[in-house]
Amino acid sequence: MVERSAVIAALDAVTDPVSGQGLHASGLVQGLVVAEDRAGFALEVDRSLVATYAPVRDAAEAALKAIPGMSRVSVILTAEAKPGLGKPARTAGLSKAAVDQGRPKAPVPTDRPAHVRRVLAVASGKGGVGKSTVAVNLAAALAARGLSVGILDADVYGPSLPTMLGISGQPAYEDGAMVPHQAHGLKAMSVGLLTRMDDAMIWRGPMASQAITQMLTQTRWGAAEAPLDVLVVDLPPGTGDVQLTLIQRTPLDGAVIVSTPQEVALADARRAHTLFQKVNVPTLGLIENMSGDVFGQGGAKAEAERLSVPFLGDLPLEAALRQGGDAGRPVVVSDPEGAIAVRFAVIAEQVADSLGL
Ligand SMILES: Nc1ncnc2c1ncn2[C@@H]1O[C@H](COP(=O)(O)OP(=O)(O)OP(=O)(O)O)[C@@H](O)[C@H]1O
């Protein structure tokens, strides 16, 4: 039985590099759970500081593991997703007041990509909850159903698709259109292929939305004789102005929202749902990721009920999911009969049904 006070003391023995205070005292520790021999929390930091805090996360994890009697520790590093961080709002062509009323002043143009039957967004209210992992594996699970599937990594803050699918290099151009990479049966494009990774952080507002519109409409996703059944769009995390601009400009047929079971993450999922409601994009459901006994279980299911949206399923905290992402080979592809692939198949079936595929 580990005492909460011992956990807090261990956390305070790790120094926050920004404030110079102990980690707990710094206020960065969110949703601390201490239960018998387990502990977990989220380290919530500004997006621009995620790299700075990666070693701090590791140090905190090690410090808690060193407490006598502790058997399981989980620390998730999440990027703060305060509305307003990704200014400017007005580039969307909507005033904030108009958005709040849910009534655009003037219609915002949305270009449907040619020869694409459905566009599905994968969103999260905050960073680090596993949105990209879910997007890639869900895309693979949809492909396993015999659908032709593309994936567009629109995460301007941290494009992870190149790593997760093991692709690199600028896309080829043919007849004025970009040719998507092919990986594991998926057609793939990423903002990370069009820019140096380091530049991705500065793609805000209009630049971000232009780049994504370009990838959406100027990529040869499908052809008249062979349309793409579904394009999965991995949105940037958060519910700020960048996200709003993107979902206004992207012709989305539906969205799934990924959340961890914690209350802090669920509040963000709720905000993401509200954002989609404002632009009349149906939320097809909530997915609980990193579900398990450290952070609890069932939070997203209860939240889905509160929001009156379907609960699509939960995914455990599972090393294979992380390893698959790091190795550029999604688990659904490398272990198609495994328990994780089966969970994704169940989610994919519901999503395909909702999209009429
Ligand atoms: N269910 C899981 N079990 C274990 N590791 C996971 C799980 N889901 C995601 N991860 C790992 O957590 C990290 C963050 O996941 P991912 O990049 O998919 O999150 P994200 O929400 O897209 O993040 P960002 O908002 O920064 O783009 C990755 O290292 C990933 O491999």
Automatic annotation (TrEMBL):
One GO MF term attached to the UniProt entry: ATP-dependent FeS chaperone activity
GO biological process: iron-sulfur cluster assembly
Positions with a binding annotation for ATP: G125, K126, G127, G128, V129, G130, K131, S132
Keywords recorded for this protein, A-Z: ATP-binding, Hydrolase, Iron, Iron-sulfur, Metal-binding, Nucleotide-binding
Domain MIP18 family-like: from-to ranges: 5-75
InterPro entries, sorted: FSCA_dom_sf (IPR034904), MIP18-like (IPR002744), Mrp/NBP35_ATP-bd (IPR019591), NUBPL-like (IPR044304), P-loop_NTPase (IPR027417), YlxH/NBP35 (IPR033756)
Family: Belongs to the Mrp/NBP35 ATP-binding proteins family.
Matches recorded under PANTHER family: IRON-SULFUR PROTEIN NUBPL
Chain's role: Binds and transfers iron-sulfur (Fe-S) clusters to target apoproteins. Can hydrolyze ATP.
Subunit structure: Homodimer.
Protein name per Swiss-Prot or TrEMBL: Iron-sulfur cluster carrier protein
